[in-house]
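Sequence only, no structure available. Ideas?
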Amino acid sequence: MLDDVKNSDIDKEKVLLVGLYGLSSAKFQAEEHLEELAMLTDTAGGITVGRVLQQRNRPDVSSYVGKGKLQELKGQMKALDAKTIIFDDDLSPTQIRNVEKVTESKVLDRSALILDIFASRAQTSAAKTQVELAQLQYLLPRLTRYWTHLSRQSGGIGTKGPGETQIETDRRIIGQRIGVLKSKLEKLDRQRTTQRKSRDSMVRVSLVGYTNAGKSTLMNALTNSGVFAENRLFATLDSTVRRHQLNNHEILLSDTVGFIRKLPHHLVESFKSTLDEVREADLLLHVVDGSSPMVHEYIEVVDETLKELKATKQDRILIFNKVDRMNDEQHEMLRQEYPDAHYISAVRGIGLSELEAAIEDRIESQYLAIDVEIPLHAYKAVAFIHEHAHVDSEKYNENNVLISCKIDQKDFKQLSKMLDTIEYSIETR
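Reply:
I predicted one. Tokens follow.
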């Protein structure tokens, strides 16, 4: 399959994409996966000029596609004037070396491509540190291959960040650099933890979802925050947190990096401190591109990534975005399968007021209605209640104050600890 190349794409790096289908995946799924790989290639600054799908039950150990197909790839590369081959799976150093030797082309696997995109998109010190650490951890077992590979590279996809500086390094130096980066991330993590503690009194809501599902667009629609949003994969790398006032509650809404199929393990590990916003959230808003034919796979990928992050205990609201792009059949099928989900268009503002009401309902479900009677001298506890609870009534007598209020369960636990050494009474309503 030869892709159309526009005049504006002439100077871009020409790329041939390669994938497999067989026992574990159907052909249509493999085609969708290559479509996603083409979007990743575009994000990285390349142009897809051809796609190759091979039917195999398992990848060839030495060359991924086998000797015969490898010769075909060599011919296609010359015919398309392509310089780079990108595979939809991770390759072993041996596979990369053998494919390079036969095709005389630059060879990247899916992880290398994603890491390259992250390197080009990282803006803050934390993101740059996290990406560099992931790249070096990816590079370490492939060091021998990269020495010869990079000596003839002059730039392009797969060469951003620390990769292009590693020609004259060895494992010891890389190991030392990894240690420095981990130490730096630990320091940044402590700073983030301090920042989060200062926000403990507020309900934290985090947007999660497959990359390009529209999380940043939804963030902007709800908070008018001007968060960068783009119709490309991985438009957002750094966490963004904004205050947002609902009818009865003020929340902290966070947006962070999107998930993707086969997200490199080293990248997940490096970004865990950034993703603490997800792990420590009180409520997760799982945003899905409802117009995509891969909607079920997107949901599964996000669920699996949340398990890897150990973020499965939080309450969750499922949101199908881009309802304006769905046809009637898609819409009806999803509503039957996910009757409790919310259907919105962040771009057009469809369904946002209903979503905000649902968020408030979930928050309210975590509240307890209590009557608490405490001594007047326990002024700190009284102040805590006024700061963290919704006070319905307050009555004073000679020695005590009786407060009727609604309070979040986590704040109720903290209030109970404050009153441990004081005689008091609490009744739930």
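The two ends are 67 Å apart (CA to CA).
Hope that gets you unstuck.
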